[in-house]
Amino acid sequence: MRRLAEALIEDFRRLCAAGALNTSGIFENTGLRQPIPATIEFASDRVASGALAWLAVTVEAADPPAAGDDAGDIFRAWLQKRRGERGDEVKKALEAAAQKELGQTFTVRRFNAAYSALYGHKRGRPKTNK
Q: In the predicted model, is pLDDT for residue 87 greater than 70?
């Protein structure tokens, strides 16, 4: 019975560390519910790590990781097509055009990732190809 309990605890810790479980609790200092870092170990509804403590801890299954970022692929394809048609443009202008043309799928995070992948940097005007 003890080995089973130890195996379950170890499996629980592994799932938390891998991000397969989301943990949250009411932080004692603020009274607000907040996520609990996966590095903190716990085995009851109260978690303490040094001066930090959470009450009413809950554990839920995390959202499964996405197999692929189809929207990110859409952004990369859109940026490549636009670059081919119009050449290099200012990032802010590209972002505004992407938001207008791609509508609901637009997020700043996806745009920045696609922009960084295509232009090789995150900030400033793209270097022109000479």
A: yes
Tell me the domain boundaries of the chain: 2-61, 70-119
CA angle, residues 14, 17, 20, in degrees to nearest 5: 85
Distance CA 12, CA 19 (A): 11
Q: By the 8 A CB rule, do 52 and 42 touch?
A: no
CA angle 64, 70, 74 (to 5 degrees): 155
- List pLDDT tens digits, range 53-76: 776 666 666 665 555 556 667 888
Q: Determine contact, residues 25/54, Cβ cutoff 8 Å.
A: yes
Mean pLDDT score, 113-117: 83
The mean pLDDT value for 32-51 works out to 67
In angstroms, what CA-CA distances link 83 with 80, 93, 108, 109, 121? 5, 12, 18, 19, 15
**What does the pLDDT average to over 10-21?**
73
- Stated as kind and residue range, the H or E segment containing 24 is strand 21-27
Contacts with 17 (C-beta within 8 Å, 6 or more apart), sequence order: 38, 39
